[in-house]
Design brief:
Elements (H helix, E strand, L loop, with lengths): L11 H19 L4 H5 L9 H20 L10 H5 L23 H15 L9 H27 L22 E4 L2 E5 L15 E5 L2 E4 L5 H9 L11 H10 L7 E2 L2 E4 L2 E4 L11 H11 L6 H9 L36 E7 L25 E4 L16 E3 L8 E2 L3 E3 L1
Parallel strand pairs: 8-11
Antiparallel strand pairs: 1-4, 2-3, 4-12, 5-6, 6-7, 8-9, 9-10
Length: 417
């Protein structure tokens, strides 16, 4: 996911409330899981629930308590080796694909650690000079909340019993005709404008030239994808990028992840697919092939952002980043189909994940999180049903490799005018 570097802190009182809410949400989401559920790792891209609970706590202990509380003693000096992710500046760490081998510490021990760290953080929450770093820690933990949900979904999917975390059934989505947000083109300002928190990869603010285009007013649906499959979309090499065609054939791909007959797997178990709900869990390769089949294309990230911001008099006002179907608590993230550009699924763009003009990674260990990953990945915009509401914004840059699809990734089409 995107990463690190705040621009401005929030007022201390609201930031403390955000810290408390964010820290409470992750254990609440993990509560339905057994010790075994929370420990397993289903693939290298995913991490165990227990590891997410611990890694986010390691972040607070390492970058706030250790560095800003004189005489602070680590809860357990052995644990940084287990729960550092990929911060080279923080030293050696367990291999990523071995995180699922950590039967100890137990979930209860990690929850005790979380409580101890939250108590120790209390005196720091109103220190003005630490506000940017605390805002960063909240955003970092919110990213891992979404990863926890997508990673445990992948793990439970491996079980032939189809276990569920919660009961739940989304309301059936209404059928929506295809409509378009039209943009006349011109010079657009792209990137974070410096107002409020942002990760470093969202800036600097810069200008880019857009040709006239239109962006779909809805996400591609399950029913749309059924027609793509029925028309031989996964068997027609003409639709696919060369790497995508190789990936399809090497892995036997013939449908989005989590599909089975007329059902799909959710956090509430196997459910009948709603044909009018947005399709998710597709790769960039699939998104690009679908767009080719449909006679359209994927948007660029600048096009998507320009519509989201409502920058031109000829288009509608800005879209609300806190709108749509996003995560509001410890509830199953289920797809409903919502208005606006945010919610339900992250949307692939055809833009490679590369630095903006004049970008420079921040100094220190936190500067590792972003810039060094700007290679071979594609940008996604918006938010998903597993994104903590309020976490995203128009300038937000999510990013994944073109074959990855275990996240709530969807498709919004574009066309030239």
């Amino acid at each position: 996911m995107a990463s690190v570097q705040p621009q401005h802190g929030a007022p201390a009182a609201s930031l403390e409330a955000e810290f408390r809410r964010t820290r409470a949400l992750m254990p609440a989401l993990a509560a339905p899981l057994s010790e075994a559920d929370a420990t397993i790792q289903s693939m290298e891209d995913a991490s165990p629930t227990k590891w997410h609970l611990a890694h986010t706590t390691w972040f607070w202990e390492t970058f706030l308590l250790r560095d800003h509380v004189p005489g602070y003693t680590l809860h357990d000096e052995r644990w940084p080796f287990l729960f550092n992710s990929y911060y080279e500046a923080e030293g050696a760490r367990i291999a990523r694909d071995r995180r699922g081998m950590l039967s100890r510490p137990t979930v209860a021990e990690i929850l005790d650690w979380r409580d101890a760290v939250e108590e120790a953080m209390a005196p720091l929450l109103d220190r003005e000079e630490l506000q940017p770093l605390i805002a960063l820690g909240c955003a970092h933990e919110q990213q891992h909340i979404e990863l926890l949900l997508t990673d445990i979904k992948h793990a439970l999917f491996q079980n032939p019993l189809g276990p569920k975390m919660w009961d739940g059934q989304p309301d059936r989505s209404a059928q929506r005709p295809q409509g378009w947000h039209r943009h006349p083109g011109g010079i657009a300002k792209i990137g974070h404008d410096g107002d409020g928190f942002a990760f470093d990869n969202e800036g600097p603010l810069h200008r880019t030239l857009l040709e006239p285009f239109a962006l779909s007013d809805r996400l591609v649906t399950n029913g749309d994808w059924d027609r793509f499959i029925a028309d031989g979309g996964y068997r027609d090499h003409r639709l696919w990028l060369a790497d995508g065609w190789a990936w399809v054939n090497e892995n036997g791909i013939d449908a989005p992840m989590y599909w089975r007959d007329r059902e799909h797997f959710t956090h509430a178990g196997w459910q009948e697919r709603d044909p009018h709900a947005p399709v998710t869990h597709v790769s960039y390769f699939e998104a690009d092939a679908f767009a080719e089949w449909a006679g359209y294309r994927l948007p660029t990230e600048a096009e998507w952002e320009a519509v989201a911001r409502g920058q031109h008099d000829d288009i509608e006002p800005a879209h609300d980043p806190a709108g749509g179907n996003q995560l509001d608590g410890a509830v199953p993230p289920l797809l409903t189909g919502s208005d606006g550009l945010f919610g339900d699924g992250w949307q692939f763009t055809r833009s490679g994940y590369l630095p903006y003009p004049r970008y420079a990674p921040p100094a220190g260990a936190v500067g590792e999180y972003n810039g060094k990953f700007m290679s071979g990945q594609f940008v996604l915009k918006g938010a998903s049903c597993a994104t903590v509401r309020g976490h995203s914004r128009a300038s937000y840059r999510n990013f994944f490799y073109p074959h990855q699809r275990w996240q709530f990734t969807g498709v919004r089409l574009a066309k030239d005018l």
